[in-house]
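Journal club prep — side note

Before the paper discussion, L.F. wants everyone to see what a predicted structure for a comparable chain looks like in token form. Sequence:
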Amino acid sequence: MDAMDRKIVSVLMDNGRLSHEQIAREVHLSRPAVFERIKRLESHGVIRGYGARVRWEALGLPLTAFVWIRAAATSGTDCARQIADLPFEGGLLEDLHRVTGEWCMVAKLRLASPTALQNALDRIRTVPAIQSTMTTIALSGLDEIRATGSVAPLDRQVAI
């Protein structure tokens, strides 16, 4: 990957719906050159797909929670797979990462209500290897801050 590939990826991350023509204008290359580079980036797995950024409230999932998970399992992969396979009524598991430090994993959940969060935590705790969880509820995210034009929700600005 060279600097031009990185620039193309950056443009696509900002707006994955741009045409090759629009990307070509943005990065100052020909459309066929952009097409070939994107094709190569996709075939090498650098670009794994294209998605939509959604407004979770509109989907009935206004609550974002991060759940830190400690497991006793010797194989974190098995435990993670069991969590990923759980049904979350009134919510969904958006991300699940194995992490270093005191906790084994962190899950990002999108939920309809505090009750849905409670039910999700109860489900996670049914996985035999789970020892404990700690939950943090997000107040806002970077996309929401960008959409409102407010750098910080308080009266003062905070460097991000």
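L.F.'s comment for the group: Helices lie at 3-14, 20-27, 31-43, 76-84, 114-124, 142-148. Keep this in mind when we get to the figures.
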